[in-house]
Amino acid sequence: MSSPAPHQHLGRESIVERLRDTPLFGGLDDVQLHRLVEMGEIIDLEAGDLLIREGDQADGLYVVLSGEMDVTKRAGRSEIPVARVGPGALQGEIAALEGGRRLASVTATGAAEVLRIPVSAMRELLGAGPDVALAVIRTAVTRLRDMESLFREREKLAGLGTLAAGLAHELNNPAAAAMRAIDGLAEAISRAEVSPHPVPPPTPPADTPPPSSALDRADRTDEIARLTGDDEAATALVDAGWTASALASIPVEVLPWLAADASVHLLLGELQLAVGRISEIVGAVKGYAYLDQAPVQRVDVRKGLDQTLVILRHRLREGVEVVREFDEDLPEIDAYGSELNQVWTNLVDNAIDAMDGRGTLTLRAGRDADGDGVQVSVCDSGSGIPDGIRERLFEPFYTTKPPGKGTGLGLHISHNVVARHGGRIEVSSSDNGACFEVSLPAHVPD
Q: How many domains in the chain?
């Protein structure tokens, strides 16, 4: 930002006329307008100059006198365009009114001139009369509605991004395991085809106990390797349940084939597990999104919570222990299934963040006080939520995360979804963590 250059381009009267033409200041008389210009300062900007930086503490608001400005908000690594404003536009009024931090960044697209009005002048302005106060409030509410609408859509896309990221991570591991099993299976079959073998193949004794420890398994492998001369074959035989004493009566020339046969069965088991894992994930995603189903369905919230855990499993592996406390006789409810699952995703994702990825996540699901609806709790073992923050958690755009790490709409949207179902969402906190409690009725209100 360049240094202030008071009244460099527009004279005092020209600035007064410019302010008089704006909806916000049109109700002020000449004395009030001159006072406003006197208390403010003119700032000149060139293309690319930053007027407001998202996350900075607000110390005033700005009126664009000439030129155009781009308003953007960070989301992840992206800079999302919010609006392009011109002469007469008011910027930074929301943060200035509440004394908070900037909600968005404002950058000049070319040469521009703005009037900076400090917070002290703003307070004096609001005392000028109800018409002025209403005009400021109207401008702030309109701006909030526009930003909420934009970032509500952005949050939906972020939810899809979370889903896609979880899918990519979760499907990659079992797919890779399936490919390794297939490669190993092909090699094992090739060895089996060229090895002499009796029919039917011998089987390990049914009463042979599995290795009691990793050391016991290593000892068995070493003993069998002395017979086969092949560590890999010995490992396959141990996994199939063989011991050196059980193999003593089998001809040595049969052992390579026996090991290959054992490898085939073991690899088939791994392949079955891997493919089954993929099917589980795909089924969870289909249920999570309620694909090809009516907007309102009969919903078992326990399934939604479990599907959410599958989607977010890549984050839970970092060191989060999950405790599930679900009532067995929990009734199904009428609900917008995919929207409820977005609520669970927001709450679980926030809980993981609150614990820095390590701790205990407790999910509870039971009947509500009336007995017909359900009550779900998502609790973390983090450091809790301070009172001043807890009171504002459900406000749109309010976030305690650094700029670019969150839009501040996750809990706001969750609150709206729960309200749409005729339910309520509440939060409690202590030094041992925080709990979000969602109560939902049996039926969605008309």
A: 3
